[in-house]
Description:
The protein is an alpha/beta fold. The chain has one domain (3-279): P-loop containing nucleotide triphosphate hydrolases (Rossmann fold, 3-Layer(aba) Sandwich), CATH 3.40.50. Helix content is 37%, strand content 25%. It contains 12 helices and 12 strands. The longest helix has 18 residues, at 188-205. Adenosine-5'-triphosphate is lined by residues 19, 27, 29, 47, 49-55, 214.
Amino acid sequence: MSVEEREVILEVKHLKQYFRLDKRSVVKAVDDISFEIYKGETFGLVGESGSGKSTTGRAIIKLYQPTSGEVWFEGQRVDTKLSHSKKKAFNKKMQMIFQDPQASLNGRMKVEDIIAEGIDVHNLATSKKDRLNKVFELLETVGLNREHANRYPHEFSGGQRQRIGIARALAIEPSFIIADEPISALDVSIQAQVVNLMNQLKKERGLTYLFIAHDLSMVKYISDRVAVMNKGKIVEIAPSDELYHAPLHPYTKSLLSAIPLPDPRTERRRKRIGYDPSIHNYSQEKPKWLEIRKGHWIYGSDSELNDYEVELQGK
Ligand SMILES: Nc1ncnc2c1ncn2[C@@H]1O[C@H](COP(=O)(O)OP(=O)(O)OP(=O)(O)O)[C@@H](O)[C@H]1O
Ligand SMILES: [Mg+2]
């Protein structure tokens, strides 16, 4: 299906999320970003620590009131104050999975009750037995088993805890999941298992993911498209393959150069490219967005955009 025909599930328009620290200082955590996410895709959001990725996710899921801009979900504007029933409907459709499964699961609660929390809030079980059966089913869906329902989070490994987090998110059958660095805290050997599980669930349940990560190493494999974020701004958006083979923004190039290569010989020769933001002369030349190739968006001044066009012709 061509990109234009795809249904947009989430649209973020000129979103700003500022935090006032005191009378004089404001943190511009998210500073005028716009993007669309298509139904059924995995949209990666990458950038180094502090670039505003989590704030973006939290603003979308209504944990913050945005400073300005708009968020549209399934054709409805959701960044404004919603009526009780609309808020509840929204909460049922969008869920979040967190980086640290240890911190995001209540250690005093049994797995059964952790997973069933959403089921209770949204009255999705007809009886106690139905509730427990639903929990059993969810545990099996994420590769755990029913005996686990009676245990506490500390009795599990990191990867298993993340599976519990995923089961909890799935319990209310959402259509959209924001996964905020869901594998960063896990051993490398476990990361692929969790990613495979998420991919399988996505296919089976027609889910859409906003997948947040620090670096591009995993994200380029699992995302259909990737947005690169730096200091509150998105600087490049492209299909994963295109971003990988024809990166244009110097910050994207820097992130790509940080990925270790599997072959030890080429890995030894890998050069890290640094990123120096002072190369942009945006006080003289105002930057803007350009769709430089179909689906490939890049942020820059007129002269930079010209240079990018020339560079792209050679690729
Ligand atoms: N509630 C808050 N109050 C004040 N400042 C905040 C708040 N939340 C985030 N920030 C600041 O906003 C900026 C972006 O933070 P955010 O957590 O969104 O970054 P991130 O890209 O998710 O980073 P990481 O990769 O480390 O998780 C940082 O400078 C952070 O200190
Ligand atoms: Mg974060």
